[in-house]
Amino acid sequence: MESYNKACFQAALEGAVLLENHGSLPFRKGEKVALFGREPFEYQKSGSGSGGDVRSPYVTDIHDELKEKVVLDEEVTNFYADFIKANPFDWNGGWLTPTVQKQPMIEESLVERAAARNDIAMVILERVYGESFDQAEKKGEWYLSDAEEDLFQKLSRHFRHIVVLLNIGNPMDLSFLKRYPAIDSLLIVWQGGMEGGKAAASLLMGEAAPSGKLPITLTKSIHAYEHVPFGSYETNLHEEDIYVGYRYFDTFAPEEVLYPFGFGLSYTKFAISYQNGGWDGDHFKANVLVKNTGSVAGKEVVQLYTEAPQGDLEEPKRVLVGFQKTKLLAPGESETLTLSLPLRVFARFDDRDDSKFAHSFVLEKGTYRLCLGGDVREAKECDSFLIPETKLIERLSAAARPEAEFDVLSQHGKRHIGVGPRVKLPEMPAIPYTGDKGYTFQDVRNGAHSLKEFIGQFNVEELAPMTIGEGWNSPKASVPNSAAVYGGNLEPLTSKGVEIVTCCDGPSGLRAKDERTHIAIPVGVCLAATFNPSLADALADTVYQDLKEAKVYCLLGPGINIMRHPFGGRNFEYFSEDPLLAGTMASAYVNAYAKHGIAACIKHFAVNSQETERYYENEVLSERALREIFLIPFEMAAKTGNLHAVMTSYNEVNGRHSGSNAELVNVILRQEWGYQGLVMTDWGCRVDTTLPKDEKPIEIDRYSSTLAAGVDIYMVQTDPVKPAQGIIKDVKEGRLDFAVLQQAAYHLLDSVLFLQGPRD
């Protein structure tokens, strides 16, 4: 294991976002700095739960990385080191970790002595959230804790310059910036994996210039999100509709924004100029010149937004349609970037039943203005094009639509969402049953027989158990503490030579409890803040070395849901509030892992936006919001052609659990997007029963409903054979078509063919 992982370091470096800098950064070599708090010694590489908890060989901390570069105040350092010894970090096994760790109330006399010796005070704020719990509007979570508030009060009385770093995965309240004007520099370093502390120190010293941009909007107050119902134990009605994140704030409440989407400072300056643009087939090509006009090397992100015409379908003020990051530009150096914008990014979904283009993506007639700049607020109009008549882009269907009427936000007051006829579900083609012909899985691999011929040998009793994953920590797995195994873990598939696939959690690297340590990469929001999907290849290369050694070829991640509300517990795992940015990053990581024969299993399909009552709560939203916002990242990843695994979410989507939502999986994912890979449930999810209404539903024991919805494997059970008896009974009694079971087996075994194929 190297003591320095270049890929992880570069991603953490490029993801950090500089929000304020009034002269304190970068530090000068030998500058006198006092580090306050326990956080400089305990850099947090990730959030908690299955999206974090990677046992890495090391985690770089900011104190150790800075101590050879600046002069750190010894008295302050010793004070916190002694406190940490007496109050060690509480990781709680990597699950439900305390949001903030215990902090001392520092004596003001110590602060006063430190101010007499040092030029700058630096404070690092940490927050840890994760699976199973959401953030709350209280001290020590959204707001500063009492100890943090006390520290800033004392520092402000004695220091003229305070630098603050945010080692976070979720946004937090930043109103304290106004209360303490001595804070003149603010840098978000996110949770940057095992190299995060080293990357943060490098940026503090000016060894590199910050180049990250905000993948979310940061508001002045949490009350700016009062239009977003969140945290219900039963139903979350998406009253904001298509106005998620900056789409809302830029349209309705620009005054609520503290730092806009796409914002990020540097130690240098750039001139961005539009050269020319025009249509090349179904892509708009825009050429943009970027010049470093400052005094140090740096990278810049070019962002293009559209201002669409306000036709029959109202539009947010601006929508991101393209972005690209430059190479490292020396002072005075220029680079011309070509942004290729597919026609679809300009299209909007028409969910009106009475429309000529009902349930379709369309390009409405009118003038589309392109705006170029460094963030959504700063972008200036640079070009435009005219669509003379409304144009059909893609005709789809009324799938996963709401089951009850409601009203949503509109620039005209309210928009009414009605109910209507539902889409017809596709039929599954049957594979002729032949009985055992002696065909082995190796015969399929070498082309002697097809996968369908292989599956045709098995009856219902033999196929049913394979559609239930075996776990947790199956002894058949290639690594301890695996999430599940599937494939050749059961007879008669074992005797037929079907290999076993081991699944492990993986948004932040391989989460396993073997004797080895594993690479811990930056969390999703940090990766998105890089605005640089090209980093995915190097990160996948380095994580693949762990996967190959552990023989884990199905990695459960990345998480690609939309960050709808700041309080979402798994926001650190996800990429962005913007679907194009999230989808671009998701596609890059799916492609990067597929090059190594790894299934990056995207999750959680779909609309997972909170952890509160995640097994039961119902996300209710319009078709338009579903199609334009929440499904886009999944659609983009599916259409890469390199996606091999999808995990459904726990929640309901418009009244139906995702793990048994046939319209979501069989219609949208499979029929419309053309995805024919493996779909699995999240672990221990609730599903909608297939039992007749006069029989008592036993939600968690009815695995047939997942199969009927196009979900191939229910995760997980210790012994898949016993719960499979319900599937067998449903097939024999005519409640479940045997063809559906065969189709699930096809998807499952096809993934085994890919994942257990030749390695690089």
Radius of gyration, in Å, reads 26 Å
Flag low-confidence runs: 691-700
What is the mean pLDDT?
Answer: 95
Helical fraction equals: 10-25%
Give a short summary of the structure.
The chain is an alpha/beta fold and 760 residues long.
Fold and architecture overview:
There is one protein chain. The chain is α/β, with parallel strands linked by helices and 760 residues long. It folds into three domains: 6-215, Glycoside hydrolase family 3 C-terminal domain (Rossmann fold), CATH 3.40.50; 270-396, Immunoglobulins (Immunoglobulin-like, Sandwich); 442-755, Alpha-Beta Barrel (TIM Barrel), CATH 3.20.20.300. A six-stranded mixed sheet has the order 1-6-5-4-2-3. The protein has a four-stranded mixed sheet with strand order 8-28-30-31, with no helix packed on it. α1 packs across α7 (196-204). It is globular and about 85 Å long.
